[in-house]
UniProtKB/TrEMBL annotation:
<feature type="region of interest" description="Disordered">
    <location>
        <begin position="1"/>
        <end position="30"/>
    </location>
</feature>
<keyword id="KW-1133">Transmembrane helix</keyword>
<feature type="region of interest" description="Disordered">
    <location>
        <begin position="67"/>
        <end position="96"/>
    </location>
</feature>
<feature type="compositionally biased region" description="Low complexity">
    <location>
        <begin position="9"/>
        <end position="18"/>
    </location>
</feature>
<protein>
    <recommendedName>
        <fullName>SPOR domain-containing protein</fullName>
    </recommendedName>
</protein>
<feature type="transmembrane region" description="Helical">
    <location>
        <begin position="40"/>
        <end position="57"/>
    </location>
</feature>
<feature type="region of interest" description="Disordered">
    <location>
        <begin position="223"/>
        <end position="259"/>
    </location>
</feature>
<keyword id="KW-0812">Transmembrane</keyword>
<keyword id="KW-0472">Membrane</keyword>
<feature type="compositionally biased region" description="Polar residues">
    <location>
        <begin position="236"/>
        <end position="248"/>
    </location>
</feature>
Length: 281
């Protein structure tokens, strides 16, 4: 009932009891418009948060091998230095001495207790470049067609390895070169992680690991040797009161492993990794 001067509330009138309800002719009504708007804003916020979280999780990080799965290696973004041009491919050797095929930078060499990562590379068609002393060319009459020298750095033990792969026209040339290299240990240069050539050991100096492992594999020869980094070479033990001191190892080897064992383990692992691709050629 209304009194004189009052008006009857109508549908949609703010002063009526049905705030924000849109009555339809049939007597039904839609949900309040403000409620729909609030829900829409809420969904937009939720979707935005989820999208932002997904971007944070899946965005590529420097060093990721698979984007979004985290860095696989702290220095994976660094490209190992490569010096020289690869030897040309031949009909008999279509793959050639391609360092990324033979020794992918992302793949570790693992065998036994050794784990090593590829670093510096030197390559070329002139095999004389791989020699320590180019005036003494032990490969002169072997028909060498190209070389690839790769440095490996131990990841858990302080050891450096250098492996050289030589390619020849036939197995006879490879066998001849292998014999010549075995007769002259240290004939090939030892390269360091920065792709520079290591200085040869002083005459008469007792340098561990200079004797290489020479293997003839089909038309290829692999020559591998390992050394302790100069800063990690164990000093003679102190005597008397023990006033002398030795340079501590950055990553000390297992107490059960001697330096000679570490070197031999590294040389064997890298030598096998270098020769295995040519085993069936």
């Amino acid at each position: 009932m209304t009194t004189q001067g009052e008006r009857t509330p109508s549908s949609g009138d703010p002063s009526s009891g049905d705030h924000g309800l849109d009555h339809l002719p049939s007597g039904t009504y839609r949900r309040p418009r403000r409620s729909i708007a609030r829900r829409a804003v809420g969904w937009v916020v939720v979707v935005g948060v989820v999208a932002a979280g997904g971007w944070i999780i899946t965005r590529p990080t420097p060093g990721d091998f698979i984007p979004g799965l985290g860095p696989s290696s702290k220095d994976a973004s660094k490209t190992p230095p490569v010096v020289g041009t690869p030897a040309p491919r031949t009909v008999a050797d279509p793959e050639g001495l391609d360092v990324d095929t033979l020794f992918p930078a992302q793949r570790l060499v693992e065998a036994g207790g050794y784990k090593g990562k590829r670093s510096g590379v030197r390559q070329g068609e002139n095999c004389t470049e791989a020699l320590q002393d180019r005036t003494q060319d032990v490969l002169r009459e072997t028909g060498c067609q190209g070389y690839l020298t790769v440095s490996f750095a131990g990841q858990e033990k302080p050891v450096l390895s250098s492996v050289t792969v030589l390619r020849f026209a036939d197995q006879a040339g490879a066998a001849k070169a292998a014999d010549a290299l075995r007769a002259k240990p240290g004939a090939l240069a030892f390269i360091l992680p920065d792709a520079t050539t290591a200085r040869p050991p002083a005459a008469g100096a007792a340098q561990r690991g200079t004797e290489g492992r020479v293997e003839a594999v089909g038309r290829h020869v692999t020559v591998t040797s390992s050394r302790l980094p100069e800063a990690h070479t164990p000093a003679p033990s102190a005597s008397g009161t023990g006033t002398g001191s030795a340079t501590p190892l950055t990553v000390p080897p297992s107490p059960a492993a001697s330096p000679e064992q570490i070197l031999d383990e590294a040389t064997r692992a890298v030598s096998y990794a270098a020769g295995s691709p040519f085993a069936w050629m």
